[in-house]
């Protein structure tokens, strides 16, 4: 690369945890050079898989056609629904309504399939949600689960924030009872941290008795899959929840990136899974693609990062044009336009040579040139994994909502 610059209520939740910045935040860290993935047998040349294998991926964990449509709508939504676009919310709502009218498990509260630990994949968060609700699902960097155990001497529904395998988790428990075939009544009564480095639990001092009705509620299960792997529930505050016991590789990859843990392993699993499905050649798909992860931290120079595609968004057009877009600050954006030419199976040569700083209708041109190769490791209508500048592995999500089916 040559660079020249000539310019001067899972039904219920609660909010004791701190707020964290989104995963797209850029870190100006000093350049390092880890040889990530170069020795991995799972990420090799010519292992690109096209989008036709997405259904195969989902069928591996026994989801039916209508459930697949909901899962497909969920992929690409960050923060369990917090940052969903209107189109994404509409797609999820439509898929939810179809499943709620579809024949799932009758009287789910009486079925053993509802028991166990469920991972929260998506939730709507109405403004009317209680303080308990507003916080629990608002934590993007931790995994969120719900445990349901109704067939015991002490029936309980618990919400869990899992910090990491090394640190531990926070569990908020509620005494539960079955009202009918769909509805569970609950009342929060205790919460505690379970840290891996301590042999005992640390109680979290929440005054549940003083919360009164805020600590009570109900949870309706409106759809429970016959496989017992997917559940849709609605809470007394009007919140909709989508939970899964089993997730497909794409979901595990995005979840790992969101929490910042186990990303290398998730990519390795993802590529390995699809390696045996197809070796078809695919094209660099047009659309807007937001970078959500790379195997290399940025250098000290943000403009060099932007020119090499280490941050921001990529806009790909069918005519062989590609644009890098990076929001800087106070409405200023960096834009760099170039061309891509196919040089081999799933391989492209990129030449970026038209850079400008944009501020409203005005632009300040910068004389720059950046050349590097791009290899498609995986691509479908929602997610793309590439190897680009300096052998760095990138994960992008499609954000324009206009994917071709």
Distance between the termini: 35 Å
Q: Report the top-level CATH class of the largest domain.
A: Mainly Beta
For the record, the CATH architecture of the largest domain stands as Beta Barrel
Order of helices and strands: HHHEHEEEEEHEEEHHEHEEEEEEEE
The whole-angstrom Rg is 23 Å
**How large a portion of the residues is in β-strands, by DSSP E?**
25-35%
Output the CATH topology of the largest domain.
Answer: Lipocalin
Give the proportion of residues in helices. 10-25%
* Major β-sheet annotation: 8 strands, antiparallel, barrel
Q: What is the count of distinct domains?
A: 2
GO cellular component, one term: plastid
Subcellular location: Plastid
Organism: Carya illinoinensis
InterPro entries: PAP (IPR039633), PAP/fibrillin_dom (IPR006843)
Account of the 3D structure:
By secondary structure, this protein is an alpha+beta fold. The chain has two domains: 61-247, Lipocalin (Beta Barrel); 280-398, Lipocalin (Beta Barrel), CATH 2.40.128. Helices cover 18% and strands 35% of the residues. It has eight helices and 18 strands. It has helices spanning 54-59, 65-74, 86-100, 131-136, 208-211, 249-259, 263-275, 302-307, and strands spanning 116-123, 143-149, 156-164, 168-178, 183-195, 202-203, 216-224, 230-235, 240-244, 287-294, 313-316, 321-327, 332-344, 347-359, 362-366, 370-379, 383-387, 393-398. Strands 1-2-3-4-5-7-8-9 form an eight-stranded antiparallel barrel. Strands 10-11-12-13-14-16-17-18 form an eight-stranded antiparallel β-barrel. A hairpin with a 2-residue loop joins strand 13 and strand 14 (347-359). Helix 2 (65-74) packs antiparallel against helix 3 (86-100) and helix 6 (249-259) runs antiparallel to helix 7. The two termini are 35 Å apart. Residues 1-53 and 126-136 have low confidence and may be disordered.
């Amino acid at each position: 690369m040559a660079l020249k610059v000539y310019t001067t209520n899972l039904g219920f939740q609660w909010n004791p945890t701190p707020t964290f910045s989104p995963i797209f935040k850029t870190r100006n860290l000093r350049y390092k050079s880890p040889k990530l993935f170069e020795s991995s047998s799972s990420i090799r040349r010519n292992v690109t898989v096209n989008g036709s294998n997405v259904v195969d991926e989902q069928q591996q964990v026994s989801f039916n056609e209508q459930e697949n449509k909901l899962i497909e709508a969920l992929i690409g939504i960050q923060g369990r629904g917090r940052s969903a676009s209107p189109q994404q919310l509409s797609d999820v709502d439509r898929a939810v309504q179809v499943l709620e009218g579809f024949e799932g498990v009758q009287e789910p509260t009486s079925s053993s399939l509802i028991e166990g630990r469920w991972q929260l994949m998506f939730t709507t968060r109405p403004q009317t949600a209680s303080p308990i609700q507003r916080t629990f699902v608002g934590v993007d960097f931790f995994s969120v689960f719900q445990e349901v155990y109704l067939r015991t001497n002490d029936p309980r529904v618990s919400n869990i924030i899992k910090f990491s395998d090394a640190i531990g988790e926070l569990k908020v428990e509620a005494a539960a009872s079955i009202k009918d075939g769909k509805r569970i009544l609950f009342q929060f009564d205790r919460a505690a941290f379970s840290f891996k480095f301590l042999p005992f639990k640390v109680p979290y001092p929440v005054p549940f008795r003083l919360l009164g009705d805020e600590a009570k509620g109900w949870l309706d299960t409106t759809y429970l899959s016959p496989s017992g792997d997917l559940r849709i529930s609605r809470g007394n505050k009007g919140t909709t929840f989508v939970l899964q016991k089993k997730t497909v590789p794409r979901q595990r990859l995005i979840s790992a990136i969101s929490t910042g843990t186990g990303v290398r392993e998730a990519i390795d699993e993802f590529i390995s899974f699809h390696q045996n499905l197809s070796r078809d050649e695919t094209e660099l798909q047009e659309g807007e693609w937001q970078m959500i992860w790379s195997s290399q931290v940025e250098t000290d120079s943000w403009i060099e990062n932007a020119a090499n595609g280490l941050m921001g968004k990529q806009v790909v057009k069918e005519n062989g044009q590609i644009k890098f877009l990076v929001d800087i600050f106070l409405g200023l954006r960096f834009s760099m336009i170039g061309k891509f030419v196919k040089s081999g199976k799933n391989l492209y040569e990129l030449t970026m040579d038209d850079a400008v700083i944009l501020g409203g209708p005005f632009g300040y041109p910068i004389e720059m040139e950046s050349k590097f190769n791009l290899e498609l490791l995986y691509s479908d209508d929602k997610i793309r994994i590439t190897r680009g500048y300096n052998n760095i592995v990138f994960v992008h999500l499609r954000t324009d909502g206009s994917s071709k089916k």
